[in-house]
Amino acid sequence: MADNILEVSDLKKHFVVRKGIFPGMSEKQNIPAVDGISFSIKKGETLGLVGESGCGKTTTGKAIMGLNDITSGAITFNGNQIANLTAKEFKPYRKDIQMIFQDLDAALNPKMQIGDLIKEAVVVHDPGLSKEEIQQKVLKLLDLVNLKKSQISNYPTELSGGEKRRVGLARTLAMEPKFIVADEPTSALDVSIQAQVVNLLLDLQQKLDLTFLFISHDLPLVELVSHNVGVMYLGKIVEMGPSAKVAKQPRHPYTAILWSSIVGGDTSRGLKEDARSTADWQVYDHSSTSRGCKFAPRCPVFAAKAEPSECSSVMPVLSDAGDGHLVACHFPLNN
Amino acid sequence: MSTNPLIKIEDLHTFFYSKAKQAFIRAVDGISMEVPRGKTLGIVGESGSGKSITMMSVLGLISAGPGVIRGKVIYDNGRIKKNLLQGLDDFVDLQEHDGTIMQVDKDLYGWQQHSEQLMKNIRGNEISIIFQNPKAAFNPFTVIGEQIAEMVLLHTRINDPVAAKAKALYWLERVKMDAPEVRYYNYPGALSGGMAQRAMVAMALASEPALLIADEPTTGLDATIQAKVLQLLAEIKADLGITIMIISHDIGVISSLSDYVAVMYGGTVLEYGSAKDVLSTAYEKKHPYAKALLASIPGLENIEKNGARLKAIKGEVLDTIRVVEGCKFASRCDCMTDSVKHKCNTQQPPLEDIGGGHKIRCWLYQ
Amino acid sequence: MKIKYIQHTKDVSQYSELSLLKRSDKTDVVFVGYGLFILSMVLISYLLGVLGWLPFTADDMDMDLMMALPGTGSHILGTDFLGRDMLTRLILGIQAYFLPGLLAIVVALGLGTFMGVLSGYRGGYAETVITYINNVTDSLPRLVLILLVVAAFKPDIYIIMFVVGLTNAPAVASLVKDKITFLKQKNFLEASVALGLSTRTIIFKHILWYNCRTLLIIQATLGMAEAILIETSLSYLGFGVQEPTPSWGNMIQAGANYMMRGDFWPSTAPALAILLTVLGFHLLGDGLNNILEGKRRK
After folding, report:
1. What's C222's domain CATH number?
2. ipTM beyond 0.90?
């Protein structure tokens, strides 16, 4: 499809953890952080990736950014293969693909002034500018992210969380990217500031025709900002579809549990019974050797079925459950 | 049983000296609230609102540093009734200039001695605490069971190690640890986040306290585990009739447990009332800050659908170093009407009861 | 224990405009002041010595005034056992360690920074190898190594100081590496890569210039202090600068022979010079560290 700005197909990233001192004699353990995921994003749209810590959503984002090599699979950006490139080969795409990091201090050298930090990005993007043009562009960027002119000589430590986030954003925007990986952009912010930053991102998307991969653990937030949502569990996408569908009628039991776990929120769209009591305390185990569904040990649907089912022997595949709503479950919920 | 609140905080002020900034930080700036016996008080606020400092002041944990606490914290469990801050002021000499603290002389040693004396038989025995980071609360080189048993020996009437172990196992089971006999011999490092949190709840309960303080008990946990921890706390509250003070930045967490809620901002309580009223968007009489805060959270059924924007609060979270004349929220407030505008900017409104014990600190309701 | 806290300005919004001097601990300021005084004394004295603007030469003997105490005649700091002017010899003694010390500093900082960046930024095998080298040099007795070098070559102070620089490099490397590891945790380095900055810009501008410069300056002052101690110990043992060329080490050694007779001054003066100078460089390093990097609190 021509209008897909980014396509990821069967992306795998396995980390190898060595145990032991000597390289030759050590035991290797394979951790499949991302285990065969596929998705595509249309230009100007947002795909939300949601899941709990350790599900592989950040690893996916870094692989797209070229910060991680991948084990297998393909990442195509505007029709070009961008996975496993060397730094030099990746350079032409750097300007188009940018990332917002979860850590507020990321991107901000603590010993540099705000103005210099933004200036640096401007110069990298366009080395031929004159001093005045650079200055003007810095001011324009500050304005774009709602920062005050007077803050140009502040150091990062003198700023509040929301302001730091906006400086990082200004640096990102200096590159005039087409595609932004936003990794938990608001998780370190106060509630009242979170809304400001989310609104700013949405405004910028409209104004600059940006495409986002929005990574977060916050389901309601992802629902709000995304056109499509993918739910990840242990390196796999278990459910994907238009955000309204995933939010209103979750088909995978895990998505339903995520919704019902949101405290203080509306629990009506979860499972019929209270999923909190059935979902196990246990979190994850990458070392499980089961060939079946990875979610089975925590799954209330599986637990309700007394006799052995295919859940424990066959890995479910992501398949269309109608209207572009994909789900990887042998017994999807019917809401 | 008397009907007095278990803890009553009156006009509490806590400030620190920041060496880096050479200035006094008013972390808590005159708060009053009470925790009724057997109920749960939730304190909600953003970073720098003073919610954690309030908790530390109540527990007398401020004494070590260059901090000063003033006001009253009256603890009354029917048998013991005392002011946990009684006489601490004698160790401090304060010089103010136009409402700004310019110099503090503090007898550190005397202050500490006195504070320890006041807290004797209170901290640990009467008040227990659950921290945000459960692993930091355990000694990493001792198995968790022994640490819980130690609490039992130290703070309850049980003096027999065997009985203490049995009691520790009982508490581990109580917090729904699978296979308590096995977990008893686990080191803290071997526990997952959710399990460590439960182990800490068990340790906090082992001294059979009258008041449990939970400081951000689920921050950093995954959503599904957070739900389980909150469910566990709710069950314990129902079973033991324990009084809980829960502190969080997450309104969802607060609303799932609390009977009463205090909304803090810039070291003051802006709104206090029953959880039902304070945290419901349907309830009309509300502090502008609480109203805006509720509206800015996605998932609380108030997203402006399709318009796809959140209702944001303008400006930045208040910096507690600066002295604010007038309402602390004034600079970010959208509800200010022309008739009160002058007052909002010059005079701090009092925390006024607007009926039914619902208190709001706002000129709009005076 | 009484403690006192003072808020200097009423308008606390200006706290960040307070000068570095005012925000710093007073003792640190005193330390740095003393250190700078010593540093400038050393520099001035070195220049005086090089230009030859001295009242006497190193070998001028005043046979009538041997073992003179300070203030005797035109000898401000007195004379030694051969009637040579103490001040002149102390000043000329600086030449024994100054340039060699600079060599040691340059070698230690240059090589150490290179190794540190290699192991901290690249990681992998380079990190393992450099860690092992660090462990090996840490466990070698420094003086024995230097004596080995002296035995193998001739007692040339420049070769010795080159070796001192080499053995100091791993320590600098581990400091730089730790700093980079710390910076990596804040992951702005990763963000810089994502922004498309070249590796050279990241290493030289972001790591070395903005975040390692104070560390390196402090290491340089400590390196000078160490160079003084090593040069003087070697000269004292007779392996360094040889009589009649003055060095603080051989001055102590030569003067020590007369200590028993009650003439303490000829060896005490250079000893005091070492004490005050080394102390100065150490305090300078420490104070700068506290002021610029912020004190490590418990």
Report:
1. 1.10.3720.10
2. no
